[in-house]
Amino acid sequence: MSTMIEEQPAAVADRKRPTTANIKAVPESRELRDKVRDAARILAAKLDRSRGFTRDELRALAEVLLRDLEMGVQYSGFAAVCIANEFWREQVQAVPFNRRLLLLPHCLKHAEGCPADYDEFGLDCRKCGACSVADFKGKAEDLGYKVLVSEGTPIVLKIIVSGHVDAIVGVACLNVLERAFDKILLAGVPCIATPLLSSNCKNTSVDDDWVMDMIQLETPPVPVKTRSFMPLLRSANALCEPAELSRLAPGPRADISPSDPLRAHEDIAYGWMGQGGKRSRPFITLAAYDAMQGGAATRGEAFELPDTVKRAALAIEAFHKASLIHDDIEDGDIYRYGMETLHRRHGVGPAINVGDYLVGWGYRLLARDRHAVGAAVTADLLARFSDAHVKLAEGQGAELLWRSAANKSLKPIDALRIYALKTAPAFEAALGAGIRLAGDHPELDKLVTEFSKNIGIAFQILNDLKDFDTDGDNKLVAGQDVLASRPTVLLALALETLPDTRRTELLGLIANETISDAERVGRVKYLYDLAGVFDKAQRLVDKFRAKAEDLADTAEPEPLRCLLQYLVDSVLDGTAHVVPQQEPGAGLLSLPVA
Q: Would you say 248 and 274 are in contact if contact means Cβ atoms under 8 Å apart?
């Protein structure tokens, strides 16, 4: 693959994420579509199947293919899908039908007069037969597929991480397929797809025979599997499932009556550990350990993670869960994981205590294995985790004191310093723990620290941008950072850029709770637009991302390098799309609720 990529150095050197609307045209004729697919099959045959590719690498390959075919770059998105299909085809074919998911869009159904109802898995159209959706769904179910007919793909990765399927056959427009690449293919999940012939959700079609061919693919197991982080993602997800959680860290009160106050308190804590979340921190610990042991899990080989490593990963998840409880109380948040926050369900006092309990519980998990891993390893883990705790408390403390201070001046460097303290230590502790449990590697300490700082800061800025995005990411109201008066880098950039009158207005809005939430957020967003804050913040994300990528590219051994590269692409998985705000007039503003 490296030879092909080197032919297009400019395509992969640019680390920014430009708009892709101009490269999502589908070839108009079936002859051209077949021509691209045939060329993609020849190109993909030359690629190294042991590793996947990034979005930029795939785009570069697509441009090479189109150049050779003397076709325009507007077809790059379609060509990229064809290349990815041919790359993953053999591995999808080797997955049994009953371990595959067929993902279909409802825009293929007849928009008018469709009699199908929705069940928990989307559109239930098997008995209808009035459109191609029923044909595809019926054929796939006869073969043993799990089938999902639904808008978008927010639950697909969750289905895979839960262990229900091992490969995806999809039908979607190029817009959806582009978003799916980061979420699915980066994790190493075998996936092939047929692009819709139009992105117009009300009037589209597909090459039916392409879809049927993909559904029916079946071959013997392939000799080479592409690196996949899915086994480790599943292992991390399983840590907080009731069976594994009780095995690794059995509750001492589990045998007494549930009505006993001690048992009730324990149940709240254990229940909170099992609620929501991506398990990203324990995944990093498990994956770092596997990488330093040669990366057997990512190569599809038989692997076994020691319980000592699993308990360390569980400990860092406990610390994270404790911090969420305390943060929700300090920030006055109402919802977490789509339900009421713990302190609203059980009271502030009990919630604080559950958070404290989980902190102690996490350290007890680490201390439990001191004889198995040795005093030196245990001491290093305790030092790393306690240092992360102190930094997190420092960052949160600085934020809380700023929010209560009369002087609300804030420089970008001050906001970035808070970010480095609040976000980076978790990455550093998770990575460092996995590496240390695999052996003594002091030569990696500086790399881990610098990588974690850059990816942590970029992640937090991106999260600030997404606070104004309609997607929301676990936020039920847009602009919560404004409503909570948080010292974000967006605010700091605006204060640095705006003229005095506008700066004074912005400072007045921060603590002004006399106007409606919608009007307050809308006015702040307008001032941010005036200051060019969103573009400046995105450039900062690109800057810190580039630094993290450079550090990842130097990491040794090779499995660790692949892990760090994967973390950059998966943690910093996109650009927020903040719609410009017109200057609001009198009255309330209608803001999107995610």
A: no
CA distances from 511 to 298, 331, 405, 505, 515 (A): 49, 14, 11, 11, 10
State how far Cα 90 lies from the chain centre.
27
Q: What is the pLDDT of residues 473-490, one digit of tens each?
A: 444 567 888 888 899 999
CA distances from 242 to 273, 274, 281, 577 (A): 9, 7, 19, 38
What residues contact residue 548 under an 8 Å CB cut-off, 6+ apart?
A: 451, 454, 455, 458, 564, 568, 572
Closest CA to 205 of 111, 74, 85: 111
pTM of the model: 0.80
Domains, the chain, with CATH or none: 1-92 (no CATH), 94-218 (3.40.50), 227-405 (1.10.600.10), 441-594 (1.10.600.10)
* CB-side neighbour CA atoms (13 Å) of 438: 23
Q: How far apart are CA 335 and CA 531, in angstroms?
A: 31
Rounded mean pLDDT, 61-84: 95
Q: One-letter amino acid identity for 37?
A: R
Query: Reduced to 3 states, what is the DSSP secondary structure of residue 254?
Result: coil
Reported as half-sphere exposure (CB side, CA atoms, 13 A), residue 427 has a value of 26
Q: Tens digits of per-residue pLDDT, 413-426?
A: 999 999 999 999 99
**What per-residue confidence (pLDDT) applies to 15?**
39
- Six-digit token string for 213: 């061919």
Is the confidence at residue 39, as pLDDT, over 90?
yes
Of how many residues is the chain composed? Answer: 594
Which is more confident, 553 or 584?
553
- Nearest residue to 364 via CA among 382, 377, 352, 389: 382
Please report the sign of the dihedral spanned by the C-alpha atoms of residue 319, residue 325, residue 330, residue 332: positive
CA dist 515 and 432 (Å) reads 46
